Amino acid sequence: MSQLSPEPAADLSADLAALRAAVHGLAPDALATFDSQHRHVRDLSGRSRDPAPVRMFLHRWGVFVELRRCPRRAARLAELELTAAEAADGPAARAAAQEIAHILDGVTRHLSVP
Fold first, then answer.
1. Which residues are CB-neighbours of 41 under 8 A, at least 6 positions away?
2. Cys-Cys with 41: which of 23, 57, 98, 102 at CB 3.0–4.6 Å?
3. CA-CA distances (angstroms) from residue 5 to 19, 37, 63?
4. Splitting the chain (114 residues) into consecutive groups of 10 residues, what average pLDDT does each group show?
5. How far is the C-alpha of 25 from the C-alpha of 34, rounded, in Å?
6. How far apart, in whole angstroms, are the C-alpha atoms of residue 22 and residue 34?
7. What is the pLDDT of residue 12?
8. For residue 46, how many other CB atoms are within 10 A of its CB?
9. What global pTM score does this model have?
10. What angle do CA 40, 49, 15 make, to 5 degrees?
11. First-to-last C-alpha distance (Å) of the chain
């Protein structure tokens, strides 16, 4: 999901529709979770009158979509997460974590939602 707008509410709605369509196209099995989380953040934002939960939701799912747009990158991330979780020593875990951070940093640079 490239170039999601951070403002105003109408733009957030357009971003939401585009993001939902992207989730549906790339990972239809994740759509129920997407919708459930969206309802939750929409209610939370409505009660608090703070758009931050919606922005965070858009960012989190934007990262999800960007990762899935490149299956090799998503597979490498999953492999690194497993390596980090099962590492027998600190240096191996740190090396995996650093590569994970590098991948996620690259993905988030394509998103404009903070």
1. 53, 54, 56, 57
2. 57
3. 12, 19, 14
4. 44 81 96 96 91 90 92 94 94 95 90 59
5. 13
6. 11
7. 63
8. 11
9. 0.75
10. 60
11. 13
DSSP classification of residue 109: T
Q: What is the pLDDT of residue 114?
A: 46
Tokens encoding 80: 């690194």
Identify the residue whose tokens are 């953040």: 41
Provide long-range contacts, Cβ within 8 A and 24+ apart, for 4-9: 4/58, 4/59, 4/62, 4/111, 4/112, 4/113, 5/112, 5/113, 6/55, 6/112, 6/113, 6/114, 9/51
pLDDT at 113: 53
Q: What share of the chain is helix, strand, coil (3-state, %, to 5)?
A: 80, 0, 20
* Angle in degrees, 0-180, between the axes of helices 52-68 and 31-48, rounded to the nearest 10: 160
| pLDDT value for 18 | 92
pLDDT given at position 110: 76
Joined together, the tokens standing for residue 23 give 């989730």
Cα separation, 49 vs 27, in Å, equals: 31
